């Protein structure tokens, strides 16, 4: 809870009542939840947990009005799953919810990896880690591929020093900083086995599932619409055939791979239009991705 909220809170009499629905509406968190629904297809268990956390903080805020003081909820999280499953987007919206409910001051998101936290020589790691924490304070610190912080096979590795600093901050500043660790589930599980202190400070473990082909098609349509493009009927059918073939290949990254495929389709569309530049173009020509723009991919050859 930010200091401003603590100073302006009013203690209610025991026989008073509070309007939870009014408090919910005044917080404007529904706007953030709606945006999350619009931005991310599927992920129902993830969205449900985010709503549960929002409800916990909302009720906690009302309890304080009656001086029903309890320990500040621990909201440090662990996001596991493959790339392109929406982890960063959820972290960003989580920061907004935390700010609107007064849990943190700013609600901004700072995304880092091991290289941003760990130095290469003695005395370098602590300043780097503390500088990152300083930037993240009042918001959310998102550590991607967090398992790389710990390298037990290297006796001269300084990752453990960064972990110790993070542990202290996560315990002592949990009313103004939320730390989210992210990475592949199997690697994060091994990381926690080697770092029980870190596991004990993580309150919420969210596993992000891979998208289905149908969900990826819905994501593709949203991505295109956001760029003022659309599929023709034949183009949509071609992309529906492309998705499962792409999923079979190495380095498939869910929504990221879909975005890359659409970028290439837009490139092919532009070259197709340019090749027939003597022809006059209308708006439909300029916004439509045709089947040939998809089928030119080596994946469908």
TrEMBL record:
It comes from the Bacteria. Keywords: ATP-binding, Nucleotide-binding. SUPFAM superfamilies: P-loop containing nucleoside triphosphate hydrolases. The keyword rRNA-binding does not apply. The keyword Lipid metabolism does not apply. InterPro entries: AAA+_ATPase (IPR003593), AAA_lid_6 (IPR041627), ATPase_AAA_core (IPR003959), CbxX/CfqX_mono (IPR000470), CbxX/CfxQ (IPR000641), CbxX/CfxQ_RuBisCO_ESX (IPR050773), P-loop_NTPase (IPR027417). CDD domains: AAA (cd00009). One of its GO terms (molecular function) is ATP binding. NCBIfam families: cbbX_cfxQ. Belongs to the CbxX/CfxQ family. This is Protein CbbX. It comes from Candidatus Nitrosacidococcus tergens. The gene is cbbX.
């Amino acid at each position: 809870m930010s200091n401003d909220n603590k100073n302006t809170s009013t203690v209610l009499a025991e026989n008073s009542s509070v309007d939870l629905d009014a408090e919910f509406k005044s917080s404007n968190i529904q706007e953030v939840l709606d945006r999350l629904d619009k931005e991310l297809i599927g992920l129902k268990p993830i969205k449900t947990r985010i709503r549960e956390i929002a409800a916990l903080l909302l009720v906690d805020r009302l309890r304080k009005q009656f001086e029903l003081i309890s320990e500040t909820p621990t909201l440090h999280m662990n996001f596991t799953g493959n790339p392109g499953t929406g982890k960063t987007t959820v972290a960003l919206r989580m920061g907004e919810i935390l700010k609107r409910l007064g849990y943190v001051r700013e609600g901004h998101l700072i995304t880092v990896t091991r290289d941003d936290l760990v130095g290469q020589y003695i005395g370098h790691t602590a300043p780097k880690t503390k500088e990152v924490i300083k930037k993240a304070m009042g918001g959310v610190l998102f550590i991607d591929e967090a398992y790389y912080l710990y390298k037990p096979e290297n006796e001269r590795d300084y990752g453990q020093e960064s972990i110790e600093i993070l542990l202290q901050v996560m315990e002592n500043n949990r009313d103004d900083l939320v730390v989210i660790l992210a990475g592949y589930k199997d690697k994060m599980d091994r990381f926690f086995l080697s770092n029980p202190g870190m596991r004990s400070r993580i309150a919420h473990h969210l596993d992000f599932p891979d998208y289905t082909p149908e969900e990826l098609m819905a994501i593709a349509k949203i991505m295109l619409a956001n760029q003022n493009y659309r599929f023709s009927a034949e183009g949509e059918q071609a992309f529906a055939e492309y998705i499962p073939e792409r999923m079979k290949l190495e380095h498939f990254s869910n929504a990221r791979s879909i975005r890359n495929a659409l970028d290439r389709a837009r490139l092919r569309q532009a070259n197709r239009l340019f090749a027939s530049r003597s022809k006059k173009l209308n708006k439909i020509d300029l916004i439509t991705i045709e089947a040939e723009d998809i089928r030119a991919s080596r994946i469908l050859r």
